[in-house]
């Protein structure tokens, strides 16, 4: 029988590290896979050795799991055994010195400014009713203006939009809050959607229909627009705008926000704060957008960039003739 470590471990990650629900679910899945493997081998968390953990990782590789997936599983195992060691459940940490697979640092896919403009223009035009067009425009303008995660966007409380705000208070991963500024187009779209939403809710209130606390209410279980519905929406917008749907996801719009800011001169620390990254190292991946701009700066402004090549220097010591005279 496996020791009941996983539940208290997850509770500790939630309480002490502020781990988000999706993160906790990923830990639970990965550790469940590991425990199932141990059970098949007749091993337990209390007695498993470093060699057995390494054998598990080899089996994961043989199954064809991606390096990123194997690295994530090892991270969960390391954290579980660190917790067990700190809590006195084990006298050692068998995963402490295990090295995981290298994780390739992939450049984030992004969109051009022109593509984003097309998507926002499509949001103003696409929709079965004026209300849907107002909502779609507000969603797209807010996402591009703030770089919010889609889960943060669809779950915004309506109170965050009251009072013609210059900034929105966003609750991100681990319930951490941050302020994100709004562009003028985003403020205009927000005001237009909120005015319509308030009129509709006033009618519903008179009919005795319960009102919603979310900016983008829905009949879904959560009470607000779902991530899946938003994903489907932007795919439809891409088709309408003649932008390749394969390049358009909520995350590529978030990347577009960051890359366009950086290309415009914003510093990494500011972008880190706006994106809600805990570590600036996560934000540094966006520096690839600077390469062309820096190259252009050097070629345009460096005094030697366009200077003609200097003639080769003659060797010292005088000239010599081929006939020795």
Describe this structure in words.
Residues 316-325 have low confidence and may be disordered. The protein starts with 5 loop residues before the first helix and ends in a 24-residue tail after the last helix. It is globular, with a radius of gyration of 28 Å. With 325 residues, the protein is mainly alpha-helical. Strand 1 and strand 2 form a beta hairpin. Helix 1 (6-16) runs antiparallel to helix 2. The longest helix is centred in the middle third of the chain and has 23 residues, at 184-206. The chain has helices spanning 6-16, 21-41, 50-62, 67-86, 113-125, 130-146, 150-154, 184-206, 227-241, 250-263, 268-275, 280-283, 290-301; strands spanning 167-171, 177-181. The protein contains 13 helices and 2 strands, in the order αααααααββαααααα. Helices cover 54% and strands 3% of the residues. The protein has 2 domains: 6-86, Tyrosine recombinase, N-terminal domain (DNA polymerase, domain 1, Orthogonal Bundle), CATH 1.10.150; 113-288, hpI Integrase, Chain A. The chain has a two-stranded antiparallel sheet.
What series of H and E elements makes up the topology?
HHHHHHHEEHHHHHH
Query: Helical residue percent?
Result: 40-55%
Query: Which fold does the CATH topology of the largest domain refer to?
Result: hpI Integrase, Chain A
Strand arrangement, largest sheet? Answer: 1-2
The CATH architecture classification of the largest domain is Orthogonal Bundle
Radius of gyration: 28 Å
CATH superfamily of the largest domain: Intergrase catalytic core
What structural class is derived from the secondary structure elements?
mainly alpha
Distance from first to last alpha carbon: 100 Å
Largest sheet: 2 strands, antiparallel
Number of folding domains? 2
Proportion in β-strands: under 5%
Give me the number of helical elements.
Answer: 13
